[in-house]
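Below sits our specimen:

——
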Amino acid sequence: MIQINTTALYTEIYTSGGGDSWVTQSAPTNFHGFWKRKILTTEESVGDYREVTEAEKTELEKSDAAWARPSQVLIDAWNRKCNYCQREYSLRIIGCYNEDSGFFELNGLLDISTQEAIDILEAGDCQRGSCQALYSCNAKMRTNFPAEHMAGIEVGYPFYYCKNIEVINATNIAWRFPVFGAPKLHTIIGLADVMGDGLRIADQPSLVNLTIMGLTRSIDLGNQPGITMESLAQIVANAKNTKEISIKLHADVFAKLPPELVDSAATKNITFTT
């Protein structure tokens, strides 16, 4: 664990393992620095750094040495796509190529490699009525660009057996069926709604973060023991149901519900069940 020395003038961090450990950046980067002791700048915090062993340092140095800057053509294509999607959907920032880290970024993933960026771009643009055919069984995508011109469109079998997908940007889409065969999926962003009462969102328990912009029907989150209270609060706050609906939860999640969230849901005719 990193040690901390704070004075009236500065905060210094240093290793706890002596000669066998080093301090390096916590955030993904292809340009690691290594220190035994480091004085933090006013923009830095202790959480910006982590401690690694000598063996881990060696592996990181090998990885950094093998890194090659992506072509400018690829960087420009990625940034154009990110900028277009930001304008199209009024999203704050969905991604970019980060010159400081040497990684591509999208939908909160900060460590997208050059090949992974190519795979995401080559997956194509999800257009009206083509989501299922386009993304089904795509084993390479870690995340996706939001579908273009898809406001309020109903989609079946979203991201069917995309076995490496981690974050889905579902902006403006309503789902008729759950996500199947996506064991690494932990985040769904911007889902407009679901079609059919009691729809199970996903078939695996890895989902943690879920954004639904205007829920009108009952949903089943009973298979997601890690779903966050922040996700549930957002779903309730933005729900647009005109009749009584329910949100089914895993027993472990149900047991942790704060009373204020239960009360807030009740005011919107939403009941949590298990």
Remarks:
- Residues 69-122 form one domain.
- DSSP finds seven helices and 18 strands in the chain.
- The chain has three domains: 3-66, 69-122, 127-273.
